[in-house]
Amino acid sequence: MHTYRTHTCGELRLDNASQTARLSGWIHRKRDHGNLLFIDLRDHYGITQCVVDVSSPVFKVAETLRLESVITVTGKVVARTAETVNDRLPTGSVELDVAELDVRSRAEMLPLQVNADQDSGEDVRLKYRFLDLRREKVHRNIMLRSKVIASIRRRMIDQGFTEFQTPILTSSSPEGARDFLVPSRIHPGQFYALPQAPQQFKQLLMVAGFDRYFQIAPCFRDEDARADRSPGEFYQLDFEMSFVTQDDVFAAIEPVIGGVFEEFADFSGTRRAVTKPPFPRIPYDVAMLKYGSDKPDLRNPLVIADVTDVFRRDDVEFKAFRGVIDKGGVVRAIRAPAVADRPRSFFDKLNDWARGLGAPGLGYILFEAGGGKGPIAKFVPEAAQAALREAAGLSDGDAVFFVCDMKGPATKLAGQARTKIAQEMDLIAKDEFRFCWIVDFPMYEMNEDTKQIEFSHNPFSMPQGGLEALNTMDPLAIKAFQYDIVCNGIELSSGAIRNHLPEVMYRAFEIAGYSKGDVESRFGGMLSAFKLGAPPHGGSAPGIDRIVMLLADEPNIREVIVFPLNQQAQDLMMQAPSAVPPERLKELSLRIELPPKAKKD
User: Fold this and answer.
1) What is the rounded CA–CA span in Å between residue 508 and residue 278?
2) Nearest to residue 52, comparing CAs of 29, 75, 68, 82?
3) Which residue among 254, 323, 420, 478 has its CA within the 20 to 30 Å range from the CA of 490?
């Protein structure tokens, strides 16, 4: 018989009754019934109930063991009586009558409960993450992650992609976030950068002629944490294709992403509907107008309308809006359907919510058969109200809420209001994964602080119209072959058809403030490759962590990462980051100069 086990703790069934079995695992629960001690023994595969009789020589040892101690038990598999069968366990029709018990490791007092979902606080959970990972829900999430990655890998290979690994120590790249830098010992004063993404390398693989590349790629960005973003590092399905248009990229990846979501759609216990390919495509400008976001949640049926022209009419005398419009502002309207029977508190709550965000409030009109009512209605005559009805798709019993501001702030608040109203009215569809592509992103944007033109998305994207567009158009009007894939309001992926022509690349970076020398010093390897024959190519990089987070129905991305950092980008378990001994700094030709606040701390 094997030293540790003949079966796993999730394996025994009625067919094994009367056999002798040996199991090893952790003590999940203990129940002392006087003459009998019941132990739920747990391993990676499941739980088996083990019974120790008071007359057994191992009873006294078993009594002393704390939860999470590791033991090996040997005994006869016994069929449970009908009234003691546990239908919640796959092994619930049998139990192990323990004859032998070996203690492999005694557990001390636990800092958190493994056999319960009670909240021990994030710091405790992450400090003892190895214990947290034993908990059923977290363990299940991590196993889901592994299965999702295996499914993605299989589907990508079936699509003709080849897996490669790209360097971790590389040079800095303008991906939009801060780099993590690694000092070089043999090149004093110089640094490597951990890759924010394998962007240049995957493009170079296309230049090298490999045609279809993919990688489950680690990426490193010095960014603040969010619910859907882990600080420090994350993983993405990085892929690239040669001789493709934007349509070809979509056709290749939609079956992979859609297929994975279909495969695991019932993970949460309820079968969830998944958008069938081809996914809807929404131009960036349309998304910002209709949804107030370039990451629209299409489960929300509400749509924003532009009603600026209505409030610009001569017969509308609402000066608060007219003054903003005359300065170049806009008015956005969000329909709230069938709210005539809602109490006044419904409207007041939304108004207070907007004020809490720093806005003047959310003005509204409630439409009834006899005309509009509400704080703004008296300023909007019947003809203008009719125009509002048409513009916002309003019927009797509907209300319309207004946001008036300059275009940027108005777009943002209208998008937030669309979400808030839908949440308050419980309009967001449940048990669905709604996908879409956001396309036609602007190539450039204006930095409001510096008033400088910057890349708005991926700097290596091909501008629509090519070199001619760069030379003749207003930079802020140029669109790029850039696209995002969005699911339920979460961006899963950014991608683009790449700029593979050196002359176009020089000009594109020149507009963003980079000289020819800057481009050659920072991207010399890729430029030289492009000068020696580069195919048209494009790709994308869906985020693994976010995919698993959605499938697991978890609100926080840390619930699907094995060993995540906390919100302050600290690893509480391994105590990182940490100070480095002076001799190591000297070896790296480094000296620490702390900022004043850090010195005080």
Assistant:
1) 31
2) 75
3) 478
Judged by DSSP in three states, 460 sits in: coil
**Three-state DSSP state, 275:** coil
Q: Who's near 449: CB < 8 A, 6+ residues apart? A: none
Beta strands in 54-176 (DSSP E): 70-79, 94-105, 162-163
Is residue 84 within 8 A of residue 4, CB to CB? The reply is no
The Cβ of residue 57 has, within 10 Å, a number of other Cβ atoms equal to 10
Give me the pLDDT at residue 253, please. 97
* Percent of all residues in the chain with a pLDDT value above 90, rounded to a whole number: 91
Query: The tokens of 186 are what?
Result: 């043999």
Burial of 511 (0-12, 13-18, 19+ CB in 10 A): middle
CA angle 442, 446, 452 (to 5 degrees): 130
Q: State yes or no: cis peptide before 174, omega within 30 of 0.
A: no
Among 417, 381, 420, 379, CA closest to 401: 417
- Closest C-alpha among 265, 214, 174, 80 to residue 539: 214
| Predicted structure pTM score | 0.93
Question: Shortest CA distance to 525 belongs to which of 496, 548, 550, 502?
Answer: 502
Enclosing H/E stretch for 263? helix 246-263
Summarised one tens digit per residue, pLDDT across range 368-380 is 988 899 989 999 9
Judged by DSSP in three states, 223 sits in: coil
Average pLDDT score over residue span 327-332 = 97
Whether 399 and 339 have beta carbons less than 8 Å apart is answered as yes
> What sign results for the dihedral spanned by CA atoms 309, 313, 316, 321?
positive
282 pLDDT exceeds 90?
yes
> Residue 225 pLDDT > 60, yes or no?
yes
pLDDT in tens, 515-534: 999 999 888 888 999 999 99
- The pLDDT value recorded for residue 407 is 95
Rounded to 5°, the CA angle 134-136-141 comes to 95
List Cβ<8 Å contacts ≥24 apart for 250-253: 250/278, 250/279, 250/281, 250/437, 250/483, 251/277, 251/278, 252/159, 253/485, 253/493, 253/540, 253/542
| Alpha carbon distance 157, 136 (integer Å) | 32
Tokens standing for residue 217: 């790629």
Q: Are 431 and 445 in contact (CB under 8 A)?
A: no
Condensed to tens digits (0 to 9), the pLDDT of residues 149-196 reads: 999 999 999 999 999 999 999 987 655 689 999 999 999 999 999 999
Residue 306 pLDDT grade (very low, low, confident, very high; cuts 50, 70, 90): very high
- DSSP-H helix ranges across 190-237: 199-207
* Encoded tokens for 250: 């979509």
Nearest to 444 by CA among 378, 508, 532, 536: 508
Q: Give the pLDDT score at 523.
A: 87
Q: What is the mean pLDDT of residues 302-325?
A: 96
